[in-house]
Amino acid sequence: MMTRKTKQELIAEIVTLLEKRIEVEDEKSAPVITVTQNQPLEMLTVKECTQAVSGLSEHTVRQLVRQSKVAFIRTGQGERGKILVSKKALLEYLGGKTA
Could you give the strand order of the β-sheet that contains 72-74, starting from the edge strand earlier in sequence? Predict the structure, then answer.
């Protein structure tokens, strides 16, 4: 069984590798996630985003992802993969409004 810390470290490594592989075409690309050792990266599913922010719908979270307004990664294959949104990026975009 993988610990929470191990999962967060693995996600941080994946994000770092993805940042190196993805070419930025314009300024409207998704925000960059930066991770330091002192600051663990917390990723939320779409449903967890709605629980973390009062009044936020799953549809709105998906639209924010589609418009690249919040940092996210997609696990799995293709567009059917699970969406994981950076909690920090979501809260910063929404102005820190939590449930």
Answer: 43-44, 83-86, 72-74
Q: Which domain holds residue 72?
A: 42-99
Structure tokens at 64: 């924010």
Read off the pLDDT of each residue in 72-93 and give the average, rounded to a whole number: 86
Would you say 68 and 28 are in contact if contact means Cβ atoms under 8 Å apart?
A: yes
Output the six-digit token pair for 8: 């967060």
Residue 63's nearest CA partner among 52, 54, 76, 50 is 50
Q: How far apart are CA 33 and CA 98, in angstroms?
A: 20
Specify if 22 maps to a domain. Answer: no
| pLDDT score for 8 | 82
Helix (H) or strand (E) holding 85: strand 83-86
pLDDT score of 62: 92
